[in-house]
Structures are given as structure tokens and as C-alpha cells.
């Protein structure tokens, strides 16, 4: 039987930029992932000097760093909760798009393996544990008993 799906955007639909994500497995066994964008903190104050008497724009000549000496902010944009049945096709879709992008950018297999290794190492060093890779989850779920 063939089913046709019609796509509509929710009134809450929005596009967000993501520099990374963090999350965990929920108590019900779903995957929870919150995406964040990374930015420098807004200054707590700045000093200006008028460029000229007639111009409305001023030149920022001094700005203090963010409150409490914060050097970088990771602002959570959106949280996502998916079950394993939904996560696997999403994982495969991302994997295919990543491979397309890798080929478009001309990244060699050797450089790609180095990139993956560096990302895995960095992931292990995060202060907050990162989400297990979906491949690990699928392997654990479907491994022979």
C-alpha cells in the first residue's frame, strides 16, 4: 500500500543555526539532544567616541568582555527528542548528506579519517557528556544476545 504524505510547516516552525549539540538517553530510552549556537559574549559595557558632530554613528573604541569573564557562550536553540525508530533514518540521512558534502569539498579519505578521529577525541573531552553516536546505539540495540 502506498501512502502519500503532505508536508506543512507548524506555526512554531523556525530555522536555527547549530554549532553543536549535547544530550543523553532519556529515562524512557529515547534520545534527547539540545542544539546550541556558539558566540562570543556581548560586552557588559563599551565606550564610544563620536566620529563627527553631524554623524549619527559612533565608533566603538573600547568594550569590556562579558560578565564574569565569560569568553564564549553556547546558547541552546532547540531540543530534540527522538526514539530509536526515528533516530536511525535521521542518522542515515545525515550520514548521506555528510558524505555528499565531503565529496563536494574534495576531502580525501585520509583527511576524513583524521577529521573523524579528532572529532571523537574532542567529544570525549567535553565537560558535559555528548550524546552517544547513533551507530553505537543501533549496534547495542541489535547486537546478538
Please characterize this protein's 3D structure.
With 145 residues, the chain is an alpha+beta fold. The chain is 32% helix and 25% strand. The chain has a domain at 84-145. It has three helices and five strands; from the N terminus they run βββββααα. The longest helix is centred in the middle third of the chain and has 21 residues, at 84-104.
Query: Could you give a short account of the major beta sheet?
Result: 3 strands, antiparallel
Radius of gyration: 22 Å
Low-pLDDT ranges: 127-132
Q: Please estimate the helix content.
A: 25-40%
Oligomerization status of the protein chains? single chain
Gap from first CA to last CA: 34 Å
Strand adjacency order, main sheet: 1-2-5
Q: Strand content of the residues, in percent? A: 15-25%
Helix and strand pattern = EEEEEHHH
Question: What labels describe this entry?
Answer:
145 residues, alpha+beta, 3-stranded antiparallel β-sheet, two-stranded antiparallel ribbon, 5 strands, 32% helix, extended
How is the topology of this model organized?
Blueprint: E1 20-25, E2 31-39, E3 46-50, E4 58-63, E5 73-82, H1 84-104, H2 109-124, H3 134-142
Antiparallel strand pairs: 1-2, 2-5, 3-4
Helix pairs in contact: 1-3
